[in-house]
């Protein structure tokens, strides 16, 4: 793990080509003009967990060569449609975080949504995508759409109805969602044969605004309190919820 590594040069980084058993790599707040992703792609046989977040580079397209990658975090990176299409075609990812990647549109995101084994997807602060990109995602367990301001009911309702393993849906500051979403989620969770509980995570203002006429024991709603300094989600009176998306949620306490 290398954090705040702005003084690390490409000449120093070439050494990674010799790390034939490297399984996990984290780079945050880095600065490389070009070429370093070629070094990373040389570890395609072993690398399974990759974080490249809040740094600077001209291109990330070599990342799509990491065919054994399972977890990918590209938060606040120059992610474009071409890269996401390549990743969708070549990788078998379980967890993806592309939060704050301002270039992402529905076209690129559709390739990630279509990943057959995807379990966790974090797309916070994506202002150029909307709910129409979502489809049936049978393996999806966690979806974080916080601050995706174009999210509306229709696509999210389809997702809930067709994704029976979905356990956590984060919708903080998605102000276009309405009571219709809540009503549909109640009906969908009652029909679930696997008895998986869907937990909706909303801010207090949304909880007060959305009131369903019926309730479901499989649809608890949690007030989300976010500790930005630690990146943790809490519910109720600071009860531990868990970090997302790369550490599995372990405990929930109803507010």
TrEMBL record:
GO terms for cellular component: SCF ubiquitin ligase complex. GO terms for biological process: SCF-dependent proteasomal ubiquitin-dependent protein catabolic process. Residues 40-203 form the F-box/LRR-repeat protein 15-like leucin rich repeat domain. Pfam families: DUF7885 (PF25372). PANTHER family: PARTNER OF PAIRED, ISOFORM B-RELATED. This is F-box/LRR-repeat protein 15-like leucin rich repeat domain-containing protein. The lineage of its organism: Eukaryota, Metazoa, Ecdysozoa, Arthropoda, Hexapoda.
